[in-house]
């Protein structure tokens, strides 16, 4: 009976953590989408008067990249090898590719 209780308790804990990670990820994605919309509009307005956006825009952009990297690390820690083998594996590979491209863009931008 005790083994059954332990077997049932572990998936609930993982589900709770996974649900929390999904919510945090969604918030980061929504905030990043709003920021990208603002950034594009502000960049167009600045280009009309031959100006550039302030450095704070780059800092916010880098902050989102760091947040996505941290989120990826948490997901890898939470799911372990299942990250590459569960039903969401294709989405996970896509997420890794997007984060890698963001990091590469940041590295190339700072060179």
Automatic annotation (TrEMBL):
Topological relation to the membrane, as annotated: Multi-pass membrane protein
UniProt keywords, alphabetically: Membrane, Transmembrane, Transmembrane helix
Any one cellular-component term (Gene Ontology): membrane
InterPro entries linked to this entry: Volt_channel_dom_sf
Transmembrane annotation, as ranges: 20-39, 59-78, 90-108
Subcellular location, record wording: Membrane
Stated name of the protein: Ion transport domain-containing protein
């Amino acid at each position: 009976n005790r083994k059954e209780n332990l077997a049932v308790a572990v998936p609930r804990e993982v589900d709770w953590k996974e649900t929390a990670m999904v919510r945090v990820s969604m918030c980061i994605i929504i905030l990043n989408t709003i920021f990208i919309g603002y950034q594009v509009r502000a960049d167009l307005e600045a280009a009309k008067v031959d100006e550039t956006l302030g450095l704070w825009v780059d800092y916010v952009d880098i902050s989102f990249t760091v947040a996505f990297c941290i989120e990826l690390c948490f997901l890898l820690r939470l799911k372990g090898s299942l990250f590459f083998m569960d039903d969401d594996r294709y989405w996970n590979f896509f997420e890794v590719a997007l984060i890698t491209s963001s990091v590469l863009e940041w590295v190339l931008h700072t060179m």
